Amino acid sequence: MNWYPIKLTAYTNAYVFGGRLIQERLGKKNLPDGIVAETWEISDYEDKTGTVTNGNFAGRTLHDLVETYPDELVGENWRGPHFPMLQKFISASSRLPIHLHPDDETAQRLYRKPNGKTEAWHILWTAPNASILVGIKPGLKSEQLFDAFKKQDYDAVMPRFPIKAGDTVYVPSGIIHSFGPDTLIFEVEQTSDLSSDVMPIDMQGNSRSQDEWEKCINTTLDQLRPHYQPRPFAGLSRQEGDNRYLVACAGPYFALERWTLNAPHDEPEHPWRCLTLSNVGKPVQIEYQGGSEMLATGESCIIPATLSKVRIVPTQEQSGAASLIACYVPDLERDVVIPLKESGYSDEEIRALGEVDIL
């Protein structure tokens, strides 16, 4: 079997908070007209699984490949119901609903789904003075939260933090959150679409009755977890020659890095895990044994676990460095902790990446 970088179709959502930021600020092409709130770049979620657009696997779904070739595609000895990460570009032209995602236990118990959703946001662009609402202020009771949500006084109970391009926010399941307006992000998460919110309207902008609204608030409060306070984080960087590698966040479900490439990057072999790449800069050429693949601005691909000797080469079409977002399911000690300690980072700095246990 000849493996290669795999590109997929992108599913789009036209939620009420969306706009045209993915096209206008990122430069992603071939989007539908009108509101585009999300493009699901790498997805194996139920009927929204991507279809391969290139190479020998063209026309097959990502879910088909995951089921047929789990070791070669995802990683040696990996087994699961679906590809383990879902990745999106999100255009928050308006503020997202105040919402949360259930944890794994709740997803299995209440929704009969294999997992909940921990996620992270990597900020690509914001208007000046942009901020996020995330988590719950300490010491508040459910009654106080319910009253604030009914009054739509979110700042009374949720911390607000300023954000800027380059920040990353790690958001575990059960943590209530929102961002926008005028914010463009890349999001990586567990493969799930479960959520609950506290809003008087739904994601399509339809009004809810008072009973429906209060039921939504109570469902959200039942799933709320106050154990973690997310904060924007600038990441931990290392320089290798002309290239800069930023570890932006990490936890048991995914790690996210931002690569700034002025020179070719040689990706080491890692048969225990695959790698996804999303291009948020100028085009790059991905060279591998047997061929090459261009990754255009706004495009994403999967580098299969079995694919070795991959080189990523910035093109000369435009000035400036190439910029890529790389995601993977880490062996935290091997892939994150040891390399960062070797670069001189402390245990405290590494823990700030998200949910990283250090022995």
Automatic annotation (TrEMBL):
Keyword Ribonucleoprotein (UniProt): no
Keywords: Isomerase, Metal-binding, Zinc
Keyword Metal-binding assigned: yes
Entry's Gene Ontology BP terms: carbohydrate metabolic process
Name of the protein in its database record: Mannose-6-phosphate isomerase
Domain of life the protein comes from: Bacteria
Cofactor note: Binds 1 zinc ion per subunit.
InterPro entries: Carb_Metab_Reg_Kinase/Isom, Man6P_isomerase_Firm_short, PMI_typeI_cat, RmlC-like_jellyroll, RmlC_Cupin_sf
